Predict the structure.
Amino acid sequence: MSLFQYKEMYERMDALERLDLTFHWGPYDIRVLHCHLVQFSPGKIINFHMHAEYEFHFIPGGKGTVILEDTQYPLGPGMFYLTGPNVLHYQEADMREPMEELCLHIDIVKRPASKQSSEPISRSSDWEELEAVNCIEKLQSLPTQPAMDKYMAMSCFVEAYRAAQHSYIGSYTTIKQAIIQILLRSVRAYEKPEEDLLSIPTRNMKQYRYKLAIEYIRTNYAQQLSIDDVAQNLRLSTRQLQRLLKEMEPTQSFSQIVEVIRLSAVCKQLLASDASIEAIALQCGFSSGNYLHSVFKQKYGITPAQYRLENQPRINGSAVLQLNEGGAFTDEI
């Protein structure tokens, strides 16, 4: 992104300043104090000072120098540095040209620790919290020296500014994500190749594909359904799906799995409507009422009509016989 593309932020310099930007990220409350583009005229000096909060300084254009603690560093386009909390620093623009600076000044406060679960991390929110903690802990130990903005954190300033200016659906979330990205990309710029990093959570692909297969059957049981249809939907070969189902359901074939799901749907229809057995059979994927009658009685010892007769009057406040996913009747109150 060229310096010209940042210039639009001069049109309304307080666009982001006017917003009350406080949000949660993992266990932290993040409050945005300043987020803007400023220009230092040639030779402009900002004398030694410090902040109680974090301040990110990005240089999209121009050049100058910064003194962090007692060390001086040159600044140029594409560089950034972090100050605070309580880091003494001094800034000076080049004597011959102005220096542009994108500034993000934020306060980060960790909320009181909630009760920690001993269960392994599994939910997306858990991983987001872990990444937030990892990022802020690294932020607290970053070296006090400038680095190159290798991951284009500067582009996030423009994204946040445009969201603030145009106020579209999701603009607040866009701004929040842009601020978080500035933090994450800044930390990444200091990463070392040998550093031990967090691994993104992975799935158990067998369980995941099995779950997708069952969900697809549950959604499409009323249609003519073959194992080829399910395999194609999962982008697997029929042979791969056959092996998967055999491993996950060693006692049931594909047709038996489909049959159990269809029978479960039949039981619900028998109790929920007055439709004929023939109509329910066709609605639930059976070729006819007679075929449903035969399958139902062979597997469960009673006919669909008997099931309806014995259970329908007892729905309110009485035990109702229902089929579980394994194909056996269970008592539910």
